[in-house]
Amino acid sequence: MYELYISEIVASERHFCQFSVAIKEVVKDQEDREKVSALLKTHTDLMQSDLEREHRRLKNVVTLCHTIPMAVTKGTEVLEIVEKGEAAVKSIADKL
User: Fold this and answer.
1) Who has the most CB within 10 Å: 6, 28, 34, 82?
2) Which ranges constitute the DSSP H helices of the chain?
């Protein structure tokens, strides 16, 4: 259940960022482009912060539950989703 929740959040954020980048490319007015860039940077920074927090929290849970194989397996699966999200958001942030 939590895995699906994280997947949906990451997918939603990825789509938002893709949409924002597309808008930035379409906008011709320099002032508007700067505003879109600032908005996208703020949102990207917040998303990076959220993903980093989730990553730390999940690593702590996996560490605490290291004797429960199912917890480690599921925790690791969710961590992989978060890491993919972190990579995607970093890629977008690097282009700003």
Assistant:
1) 82
2) 2-26, 30-64, 69-94
Tokens 């990553």: give the residue.
Answer: 55
Q: How many domains is the chain partitioned into structurally?
A: 1
CB atoms within 10 A of CB 28: 6
Mean pLDDT of successive 10-residue stretches along the chain, which has 96 residues = 67 72 76 81 86 90 90 88 85 77
The pTM assigned to this predicted structure is 0.70
Q: At what angle do helices 69-94 and 2-26 cross, to 10 degrees?
A: 10
**Domain coverage including residue 58:** 2-94
Find the helix packing angle between 69-94 and 30-64, rounded to 10°: 160
